[in-house]
Amino acid sequence: MVRLKRVFCKTCGKEFFRENGRYNEAKKFGWNQYCSKECLYREMDKTQMLLCENCGKSIFRSPNAISLHNYCSRSCAAIVNNRNDPKRVAKFKVCLKCGANFSSSKGNLKFCSMDCRDGARTKYGSEDLLQIIKDKFKELTRVPARREVKISKQCMQIFGSWNNAIIAAGFSPHRSDSQRMYKRTNTKALDGHLCDSVSEALIDNWFFSHKIPHQRDVYYPTTNHRADWAVEMNGQRIFIEYFGLANDSKRYDRDINYKRELCQANGVPLIEIYPKDLYPKNCLNEKLYFFILKDIQDAGDRTQAPFSRRMDTTAILHPV
User: Fold this and answer.
1) What is the pLDDT at residue 89?
2) Using H for helix, E for strand and C for coil, what is the string for 203-241?
3) What pairs with residue 241 in β-bridges?
């Protein structure tokens, strides 16, 4: 039979019974005895309740976290610190360019912003720069390019860009002759070909709907230029190009002429398609009718005339 000993909990004082062996062991080593784990943890917890010095809210801190001043949050600590030690009054300076007041926390700053600093470094004002552009326009009888004037950097500092300065002077800026003047909108055709525009996708879909085998982005001979499509007909490779930006950019027009010269030099027929062939009416059936003729031999006489016409009036370049 188990012999029990009556014991009182060290935390709550509740009476409970323990085995005689456990009781003697605790008494031998001087251990406190508890009725439950909750009372044991409560006795081990040394957290103390304090009051926030600012708002009076009750807070609990362990002994090692108690300091001379205790707060419930950083906000209360900041309020008390700001009340006891007011901030220093910020020192303001006057911008040498625009006259605005600004605070300087470090360094010997003289200007309120980078724009004022850059503007103060030039001996010209905005009106002076605009007058120089207008005088150059009268001299050249056209809008001057950036490299033709010596104040382009000052214009970029004050107006943000050379084109903004040209617009502020009352002129229209030049189109760039070296950079791409459009953004491609990739469109997937019905056969999965990735096209550079919706217009190219319409042409590619025309080939697909008429079951005409065609290739995309085929290299020109002896160069890295690519044709939009290539079609094999009677053992002859024919290039098809969509010139959607013709007469819109000098660089683009130079590429058109260069591709024509490549085709002439290498004996490759070139079919040129323009936006007028697609909009407002789709004229691809008339433009590419010889691809869908059932009898290619009978179509030879019908296609001979277009192949012999000049490039600027037809879609096909006859190989030399």
Assistant:
1) 67
2) HHHHHHHCCCCCEEEEECCCCCCEEEEEEEECCEEEEEE
3) 272
